[in-house]
Amino acid sequence: MRRLGLVLAALCLVSAGELNAQRARTTKKPAPKPVPKTEPAVVTCPEQLGTGLRTKATFCFVLAGRDPGEGVLVSVPPHTQATLTFDLHNRHTYSEEEIRAGRGFAKYTAVIGVLSMAGDLLGRGAVQTEFRTAKDLYDRITGGAGPGGTKAVAPLGREQVSISIPPGVDRVSLLGEVLDATTAAGREIATPGRPVAIVSNVQVTYLPAPPPRKR
Fold this sequence. Notes:
By secondary structure, this protein is mainly β. The chain has helices at 2-26, 96-100; strands at residues 37-40, 42-44, 48-51, 58-63, 72-75, 79-93, 106-116, 121-131, 153-165, 171-183, 186-189, 195-208. The protein starts with a helix and ends in a 7-residue tail after the last strand.
């Protein structure tokens, strides 16, 4: 009787071992966690300033307005989480003659909004800078008639802006809201369709949305 019990116990151990082995073979590995991706954004610029001489970056005007379709359009890949980042600059028209005449000082404050294409405000960016000499310029833009083939209009200052983009939003618009500029030409404010600020280095960091389930 004792021998029969030992045999039955051994059989149970073998069965349990086979069952555990079978479970190990049939258990699915957990899906890998999504890894955040950072990549240059696809940008549709209504009015380009040009390419930076020093940074080689592409600079784009942000125009004043309320219609998202008329702003700087930025595509956002399908995501569960996403953050839009960009550099925001003031717009300055450089004049060597005004500097020599002692009229080179300028001061700027610009505010832009980041909106969904439905017009929902997702966030704002602001930049405030002062200009006294050419060293204050963030970069010079190629393709002009100035010294070294540069344009008179240049980005001034640099403010890094970061905006969270909700899931389901695949495109956003950058539009100018506020401009308070004091230059040798006088005071300037935001008017529809006119440049308020300049953006560059537009990027998106996101967690990709899972692929749609197969039916």
